């Protein structure tokens, strides 16, 4: 695991890094846009990837995106990435090469 993936950053530092309020960050978590870990005491811990994600979400919302739009785009990208991975594995297994479109 690289250092950017470790969930070690507390809420106070995340608010300073992102410029978002605690309320906004909790709302994004509630909507399934970011997934902090919880300590035994219940405090949220974020990774550097989470911080980048929060900034990305806030920017998209400021640009007029809806939360549903963000989640739908990610679902489509995830499906495409999964399809590309499978296609690559099949191409490798059967020694075929993708055709240009």
UniProtKB/TrEMBL annotation:
Molecular functions (GO terms): DNA binding; DNA-binding transcription factor activity
Key word Manganese present: no
PROSITE patterns (alphabetical): HTH_MERR_2 (PS50937)
CDD domains in UniProt: HTH_GlnR-like
Domain HTH merR-type: 8-76
Keyword Manganese: no
Keyword field: DNA-binding, Repressor, Transcription, Transcription regulation
InterPro entries on file: DNA-bd_dom_put_sf, MerR-type_HTH_dom, MerR_fam
Protein name, as recorded: Transcriptional regulator, MerR family
Species lineage: Bacteria, Bacillati, Bacillota, Bacilli, Bacillales
């Amino acid at each position: 695991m690289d250092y950017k993936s470790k969930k070690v950053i507390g809420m106070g530092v995340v608010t300073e890094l992102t410029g978002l309020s605690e309320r906004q960050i909790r709302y994004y978590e509630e909507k399934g846009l970011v997934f902090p870990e919880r300590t035994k005491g219940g405090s949220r811990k974020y990774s550097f990837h989470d911080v980048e994600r929060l900034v990305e979400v806030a920017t998209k919302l400021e640009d007029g995106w809806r939360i549903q739009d963000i989640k739908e785009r990610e679902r489509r990208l995830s499906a495409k990435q999964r399809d590309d991975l499978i296609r690559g594995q099949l191409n490798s297994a059967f020694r075929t090469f993708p055709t240009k479109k």
